[in-house]
Write a structure and sequence with these properties.
By secondary structure, the protein is of the alpha/beta class. It folds into two domains: about 210 residues, Alpha-Beta Complex (2-enoyl-CoA Hydratase, Chain A, domain 1), CATH 3.90.226; about 40 residues. The chain contains ten helices and ten strands. The strands form two sheets. The protein has a seven-stranded mixed sheet, with helices on both faces. A three-stranded mixed sheet has the order 6-8-9. Strand 3, helix 2 and strand 4 form a beta-alpha-beta unit. Helix 9 packs antiparallel against helix 10. The longest helix is centred in the last third of the chain and has 20 residues. The two termini are about 35 Å apart. The structure holds acetyl coenzyme *A (ACO). Acetyl coenzyme *A (ACO) binds next to strand 6. Belongs to the enoyl-CoA hydratase/isomerase family. GO terms for molecular function: isomerase activity. Keywords: Fatty acid metabolism, Isomerase, Lipid metabolism. Pfam families: ECH_1.
Length: about 260
């Protein structure tokens, strides 16, 4: 966790990331990324998503767990709405050039997709509002620890948009198509008790216990053999796509690697 002993983040820790509303620290095997525009409820700009991608690319070797958290009263209020009126939205692709818009969105999605890398486990520490792109950021992480004041909301359809920051797949996988439709097309808010019941949060704790709960989880994650953690994450994420036969083969392949690492000569 980020603390007084935390090492400074490598290269990317400069002013650009701060301007993008991001801060990150590396402390041994743990990187902590903080959405850091509390006065705007950590609303995110294109620069934020590009900054997240840059952090993913800059993670030092040896980092095994990445924690994402929000400064202030909320995890994130989603996209910075001022970008729709032009402010800070330079380079905004308006859809008139389909190929350019596709490339533009793909670049922003890179801020989220690296969170699935098998060499790290990603933990979202979510409190207060997690709206739109903020909800999708939590969904992009492997594990969500939520405070009991959490409010998840997929707001995009209410604004005439679709969720496009990688969130639709994990949402459907977690809650099922019917519930995903209901949540997205009503843009209603999911509170902590329901989030736990739906599986949107693996752990729910009182607001003042969030940091301690995340610390405890991180310690448990780090206690597992690193090679086994990487192989198991890869295996579990493959499971949804594979047939039983393919998954059995994947289990054999991963276990062969583990046995070689543990006992091979
Ligand atoms: N974009 C830009 N500014 C924002 C955003 C946002 N998404 N969310 C909050 N802010 C600003 C507010 O304008 C306000 O600024 P001000 O102090 O200059 O007036 C400040 O942050 C604090 O916000 P409040 O509304 O005063 O805080 P409160 O705690 O009462 O409400 C809430 C928080 C519920 C998040 C509310 O601000 C809100 O509904 N924000 C918009 C959420 C939204 O629609 N996001 C887009 C989702 S779709 C997507 O992400 C693609």
């Amino acid at each position: 966790m980020a603390d007084a002993n935390a090492g400074a983040a490598p290269e990317t820790a400069g002013g650009e990331l701060a301007e993008a509303g991001l801060r990150w620290e590396v402390d041994g095997a743990v990187a902590t990324v903080t959405l850091n525009r509390p006065e705007r409820r950590n609303a995110m700009t294109f620069a934020t998503w590009r900054g997240l991608a840059e952090i993913g690319r800059s993670l030092p070797e040896g980092v095994r767990v990445v924690v994402l958290r929000g400064a202030g009263p909320s995890f994130s209020a989603g996209i910075d709405l001022s970008m729709f009126s032009g402010e800070g939205g330079e380079g905004f692709a308006d859809g008139s050039d389909a190929a350019a818009t596709d490339r533009f969105i793909a670049e922003l999605q890179e801020g989220y997709t690296w969170l699935r890398r098998p060499d790290i486990v990603t933990v979202a520490a979510v409190h207060g509002h997690a709206i739109g792109g903020g909800f999708q950021l939590a969904l992009a992480c492997d594990i969500r620890v939520a405070a009991d004041d959490v409010k998840f909301c997929m707001k995009e359809p209410a604004l005439g948009l679709v969720p496009d920051l990688t969130g639709t797949k994990p949402l459907v996988e977690i809650v099922g198509i019917g519930r995903a439709l209901e949540l997205c097309l009503t843009a209603r808010t999911v509170h902590a008790e329901e989030a736990a019941r739906l599986g949107l949060a693996e752990i729910v704790v009182p607001r003042d216990g969030l940091d301690a709960a995340v610390e405890e989880l991180v310690a448990s994650l780090l206690a597992v053999n690193p090679g086994a953690a990487v192989a198991t994450k890869r295996l579990l994420w493959e499971a949804a796509e594979n047939t039983l036969e393919e998954q059995c083969a994947a289990e054999r392949r991963e276990q062969t690697g583990r046995l070689r690492d543990l006992f091979g000569k």
